[in-house]
Amino acid sequence: MKQSNVVWIVVMLLAGAYLSWRAVSYQAGAVYVAPKIVVDADSGKSFTTWSKVPKVESNNLGVEISWPRTLGIWLSALFTLAIFSFLFGDNVFYKVAESIFVGSSAAYAMVVGFWSAFMGIFVAQLAPQFAQKTFMPGDDRTEPEWLMLIPLAMGIMFLWRLMPTGGWISRWPLAFFIAVFAGLRLVSHFEADFVVQIKSTILPLIVFAEDGSFDLRTSLWNSIMVLGTLCCLTYFFFSVEHTGVVGKISRVGIYLLMITFGVGFALTVMSRYSLLIGRMNFLLKDWLNLGASL
Amino acid sequence: MDKFWNSLADLDRRWLFALTFLAISIPLLTGIVLPQKVTPMVENVFNAIDELPSGTKILMPLDYDPSAEGELQPMADAFLRHAAQKNHKIYFMTIWPTGVAMIQRQVATLKKEYPEYVYGEDYVNLGYRPGYEGVIKLITSDLPKLYGADQQGTPVAKIPMMADIDNIKQFPLIVNVSAGDPGLKQWVQYAATPFDSIEIVGGTTGVQASTLYPYIPNQMIGMIAGIKPAAEYEKLMFEKYPEIEKRPNSNMANVFMTSQEVAHFMLIGIIILGNLVMWQTSGRRDQS
Questions:
Q1: What pTM did the predictor assign?
Q2: Do the Cβ atoms of A141 and A128 come closer than 8 Å?
Q3: CB pair distance less than 8 Å for A278 and B21
Q4: pLDDT digit string (tens) for B158-207?
Q5: Among A79, A98, A270, A282, the residue to mutate for chain B (most B Cβ within 10 A)
Q6: How far apart are CA A282 and CA B77, in angstroms?
Q7: N or C: which end of chain A has fewer CB within 10 A?
Q8: Domains in chain A: boundaries
Q9: The domain that contains B46 carries what CATH number?
Q10: Is residue B35 in a domain?
Q11: pLDDT in tens, B260-286
């Protein structure tokens, strides 16, 4: 075995031993909750809600450990470590955590979509009395919205592709949705990303302040904006050979594009570090109860 | 000396991971906060919320999910605390199914830190509606048509703060936090650009930022892109409302930013060192 691998196995074993000691000695990941009696204003019925309290209040009257929430913290921490284990190479822990994340995310989105869209919009409008008796007791609509039959029909047509024959039927609603979104996006992109962007680039190169003095800062900024845009556009203008003056202008355009890509890359690095810091904060503080509170 | 450079060239990458772990952990554990200089764009975003009269209706779409929480949660919290401090009426909604959980988290913060906020009168959770940008397009003309009920199923007709809401043109400001598409870009394209009356500020990930900068200032007042401007926003908030700083987790962006800065210094050091190693060893490797 390579010496570096031995070193890392020892480091990992030490880290594991520390985590075990921390878990036992300091109740890592333990979540304490306090009860609160809430009375519903409409029905007059009372019920108890449990809210998280800091560990220092764990000895207060009524405060107790919440096992489901504690289990949640532990599962979250272990899954985070499983994902981090990919740094040492692909392994079974990573694969399991990744699959569970994808599966649970899809299931969550499906359940939210079902209750928000299918039940909350479709069933509530098409069968309001049924909705009132079952899942929307406060709804006072009584008349069905018959227009909802159109999306119902299109939904059935969509699912028709699962049938043994007539799969082509699903292409009709698909064509409708593509056309609708193409129309929506064409208009919005044309206005927001083309017309208004051109308008935003038409700027005065020499700017005077309100008191009549020359505004060097704004003038310089506007000049960079206008000339920079023209240089970048020249780079993408292929009808003229990029030699001589055109070549030099397009070269400036390349430099500006490179700066833009650099900024984008740096922002991406910052973004990824932020996500890592977020998880580290969770592991160190929420799970291991380490360090200063924010 | 050659041995030193060669050992660096063959360094096990796991040492760099360990170094990253230390660079991030130490500031988090010690709670050290480095000072931030507030930039004009963050000031514009702050003023957009701060200069509105108390009790203004603010639409707050939270279009992100737990995978972007580390970057977006501090700014979402800052927006929420600032809006609540100004007693603005907050309307939560999302066009991401996983955004529902993020709204619930904000509602929990609101209940804990601003117990005087009453559901239905001071804030409402409209929840998720499917349709991507189609949702934005529709609610610019008819909001109750799509949002017949709130997240709990209560009809909007029975929610006092929804009584006079017909569409989102009635909101003086939209405060969006988004992690991708559909998100801030679509709010600009479908709401802020076609309708001059709709003003928008946003918080977004660093990854998205470069595609959104061109919208400022004509189509969007300003944007908080990543953890750095979020830390600046917190600083402005603490200067004006010092009581917020005493609340737990209120300076999350500043603590995260300190970790970020230490990690960046480490990264710059590694890049310089890597180039030095390459420069020192490349000739010998070519020969071999």
A1: 0.90
A2: yes
A3: no
A4: 899 999 999 999 999 999 999 999 999 999 999 999 998 999 999 999 99
A5: A270
A6: 16
A7: N
A8: 1-29, 32-65, 71-144, 203-280
A9: 3.40.50
A10: no
A11: 999 999 999 999 999 999 988 876 655
